[in-house]
Amino acid sequence: MTAIALLRHAPTDWNVSGRIQGRTERALSDAGRAMALSWRLPAALAGWRVVTSPLGRARDTARCMGLETAAIEPRLIEMDWGAWAGATLEDLRSAHGAAMAANEARGLDFRPEGGESPREVSLRLADWLAEVAGDGVPVVAIAHRGVQRAALVLACGWDMTGKPPLRIARDQALMLQARGREVCLAEPALLTLETVS
User: Fewer CB within a 10 Å sphere, N or C end of the chain?
Assistant: First the structure.
């Protein structure tokens, strides 16, 4: 089994205000930058290969953590929310009413207007995880909440209806193991980042 640690980028202003970012480029907020500057990988992840999403907030998080040599992996990009990027879920539920509720009830097949479904995110993540498993080299990946949720789909069989099987704090890595196209949670499933002052 090949080990993968999947982190979420530090916060942006849109994270704080509850706005959906999707693939919109938003810089880390001042507080988010300070948070990322305080994070360090735990000793258990020392020497692992590091990759990031192509979006600036993930790449900046890596740089703030002292991981300047992180490679970019396009398949780690956040879910495409299409025309709904910039809105809040409250806005969308108010604007679309029963149609939004029906869309959300579709779970993996939920689709924002002009965007991609969680199932599509899971499929591209599965391709990348299978490639990582084939290489056999442990990887730290800095990505997005939607990518972490896609990993829970693959590792736990979650259909994205109801609550996720794990609550992942901002300063925690989701720990996975992969062999071929088989993905499971590692033990422990969550690993907290170290902090420096």
Answer: C
